[in-house]
Amino acid sequence: MKVIESHTVSNLPESVRISDYVAGIFTTIPSRKGMKKAIDRGRVLLNGKRARTADQLVGGERIELLENHLQNRPEIPLSLRVIYEDDQLAVIDKPAGVEVSGNKRWTITNALSTNLQASSEPDALRFAHPVHRLDFPTSGVLLVGKTASCVMALNRLFEERKVEKVYHAVVIKEIIAEGDIHFPVDGKSSHTHFQLLQSVHSERFGSLNLLQLHPYTGRRHQLRKQLSELGNPILGDKDYGIEGLILNGKGLYLHASSLRFIHPFTKAEIFVESTLPKKFRKLFP
Known about the structure:
The chain is α+β, with helices and mostly antiparallel strands. It has 6 helices and 16 strands.
């Protein structure tokens, strides 16, 4: 495979693992997580040999990034609603039932090039990069970086919990009007605040409730797991629902409604929101 970027390590005060060093050194893959994947897939050479994540650097080493055999990504005819866009970042409205990224052809990532304007910045990425994830069945606002420096800056905002996220969900069974959920997720502390907006009686589910959710941590499947643990799983959740009380054929009733954050370059406050999908509005007109 062809070398597409290279880097020589400066003298270091102490040795460091290559997996801890490589974040941000290549514009093609600016994130630490992305570079770790590249190392695991054999796309990173250290002094001409395949790198391993535990390799130690002291200075003077040459690190090379090989081309991705999937680099010519397929463009898919998926029209996305662009809520906000500038030269550094964009926010799109993700439809339910589409993966954000992965090895499949039909992903949000493969649709971005035909929906976003190319960045004119010197560190513009060849492919815009989603900086967080929404599950396959979840719809709503998705933040995308268009430059290497912006992806790194947005990653820091998420790590420092400086991105305010609001979700809406429909949950089953009776629930109190407002509360905080602190059930740990995968052994890690987690915190979500919820507020009941509307409730309707249901013969099958007892009650259908429209909740507004404010997650203060970002664990995988946090909202779905916590609401299930509370005894009020999300309508249509086949993974964490109650047997015999799972609605089939309508998908998951979970929607990422808004994001609020400070733009890492303009320093302006960005607030973006997505309206509730039609299936929500049918239940709560």
